[in-house]
Amino acid sequence: MHFQLDDEVQAFRKAVRAHLEETLTAELEERLYRSGVAHDDDFARGLVARDLLAPDRRPLEWQLLQDELMYADAPVYLSETTRMVAGVIDKTGSPELKQRIIPKAMAAELTIALGFTEPECGSDVAAARTRAVRSGDEWIINGSKMFTTNGHIADYVFLLARTNPEKPKHKGLTMFLVPLDSPGVEAQAVWTLSGERTNITFYSDVRVSDVYRIGEVDGGWAVLGLALQDEHSSGWGPHLARLLDHAEHWARDTTDPSGTARICDTDVRRRLSRIAIELEVATLLQRRCVWMTEQGQTPVAEGPMSKLFSTEALVRAAQDVNEMVGPDALRSRLEPTAVEQGRFEYLMRFSLGTTIYAGTSEVQRNIIAQRGLGLPR
Known about the structure:
- The structure is a single chain.
- With about 375 residues, the chain is α+β, with helices and mostly antiparallel strands.
- About 50% of the residues lie in helices and about 15% in strands.
- The strands form 2 sheets. It has a 4-stranded mixed beta sheet with strand order 1-4-5-8.
- Helix 8 runs parallel beside helix 10 and helix 9 packs antiparallel against helix 10.
- The longest helix is centred in the last third of the chain and has 29 residues, at about 265-295.
- It is globular.
- One of its GO terms (cellular component) is plasma membrane.
- Pfam families: Acyl-CoA_dh_1, Acyl-CoA_dh_M.
């Protein structure tokens, strides 16, 4: 097992970086930061034009693309959820639904948000109470979903609903693709600690054709598992890399009262070294998942290990950097005197949410314990 990058992969990464430098303008970054919405239609279409939305490349190149997008803080969250759901539809959707959704999704002509979590259920997704009742060739949906990020601008939501309350909670669920312009759908803004806009969405007698059902009736948990496997294998090391780069830049350009560069301070070097070590571990854990995929294996426990370690390392590093920089680190991006464009303050807030996204740290530890170590529930 080795993770060296050959010339072809290096060239691909260089091309991705050049595209991001060209398209991620200061004006776009400012607008995204102020709106809290990580999506831009023109940017998404630009990825399609460069064959970077869902390129047919080997797993390592695919991972490097994800790394570069994450490092640049590119507005791809809605594009990623769209791609993920399109992949699920390709595996389990009806021929009609595949024809209707997949080509447009891959051309950035439609978008799909995720509708799993509910206000009263937290991380226990299987406890969903949103109901779907069959009415001829349609389903009538009532309920609500929490953290439906981009639900106010997406075309569809990938919705988990309970279709049989008499069955055990994991066996009475069905997945639907609900058009968000349907009568009875409402999205209300919810703002997170990081400044991101997410939503609580409400469904009141929403009628959905059976064409939009994904998978078997009451078989939604298996369909959802396809999506969650993708999410649970995420790695957040690129955010750690960006934080480290900003911290090193600050340490080299800032001096103490005696005029000595802060990079010469023993405590500063110790903190930077610790972040660099954890970044290396996070990168290796993610590359192991890529290697397993190349070998035809599924990183069932290794994916959660990557996600768990990288997000908690990001939290530790953000706290370390804020302590190292001191009060100046608390100046936000909108403050003209903020050091490193306010990245330290922002990443401190942002890091906390990463331990929740794509499954909380507690959920990840349970998966590792049960599926990796064979421990009982």
